[in-house]
Amino acid sequence: MKKKIGILTFYPMHGGGIFQYIQSMVDALVADRSNTYIIFADMNDTRFDGYGLEVRKLNPCNRSGVNQVIIFAQLLLGLRWSFFLRNDEKQIYADIDLFMSPATSVYPHLFLRKPFVFTLHDMQEKYYPHAFTWIERFKRELRNRALTKSANAVICESNYVKQDIMHFLGTDSNKIAVIQSPPPSFLLSYEVDQKNFCSVKRKYSLPERYVFYPAQCWFHKNHIKLVDAFNIIVNETDEDVTLILSGSQQDNYPKLVAKIQELGIGHRVKHLGYIDYEDIPYLYKMAQMLVMPTLFESVSIPIYEAFALGVPVCCSNVVALPEQVGDAALIFDPNDPADMANKMLQLLRDASLASELAERGRQRVSSFDHKGYARKILDVINK
């Protein structure tokens, strides 16, 4: 008998790599006929409307301040009561046999007392506690413990994160599945429209040569050290290149702007803010490289996007990134701006190296397919 599996896609489009992760999971499972999949999405989310799956849309009640306090109190007391859910919410979830939560969230599955599988993306608060307030750290601890204790299975994307889950949360290794997600399926066989290059370039006023970094302005994304590294390129070389940044302008953004002004390189650094998703492939394709200076990343979706689109990559040597890129990228110490600048300059000045790395990246993701990804997820579901 087919199981009804609810995929929870409540996550903001501007929320970084998890947004793409959710898309990849749906891309993988949409072809499976052994189960019935039902998408749960926000009222204004239309991205899955053409997938041929049932999409149930609602405004979740967990976002109100009162309900946030109720959820926090329940996590603190180890409770799983669903009284705060509206009747229409309880009804819309009533027939689901198993929930898949691609984001690390407790809503609604923890309180409905139904089987669920969730993804724990990282535990960076254990390594960079100063980047989080004490209440944020406390909430993450309560949430992660409640989820790992109650989940039927936990998915993560690297062995590094699996070890963290076992070490910090005491979770049995048999409960944790390491499954790397490929880029969204449309990128793996993306065909560019040549006329769009000019329109995208004009839309964002892009220069001829630029290094691209798409990331939210969170502390661990390490924009400040990247700007320090780029300052070396601007002031100590004759390279005519610009640093293009994108992502929501929040959290560390004021510090980033202040740093750019302090160094006097505002004419060579441009922050585009949020980019329309359909334009992203063209920003990658026109870039000299993707740079990924992050201090903490379980798996980087932008790296896989760059690999899929044939763009060379230069990235940090932290956490699981060396495991992710293999020999398909130049890696650097993200705390050493000089090392970062040196690696970027290698790619800017050596066209054959850039081409070779781009090809290795293509080959690395060519072995990824959503059928194989789906099989691994189904193994977890069936187990």
From TrEMBL:
Source organism phylogeny: Bacteria, Pseudomonadati, Pseudomonadota, Gammaproteobacteria, Thiotrichales
Start and end residues of each Glycosyltransferase subfamily 4-like N-terminal domain: 16-180
The keyword ATP-binding appears for this protein: no
Matches recorded under PANTHER family: BLL6006 PROTEIN (PTHR46401:SF8), GLYCOSYLTRANSFERASE WBBK-RELATED (PTHR46401)
InterPro entries the record matches: Glyco_trans_1, Glyco_trans_4-like_N
Keywords for the protein's UniProt record, in alphabetical order: Transferase
Stored SUPFAM superfamilies: UDP-Glycosyltransferase/glycogen phosphorylase (SSF53756)
Protein name: Glycosyltransferase involved in cell wall bisynthesis
GO molecular function, one term: glycosyltransferase activity
Residue span, Glycosyl transferase family domain: 208-364
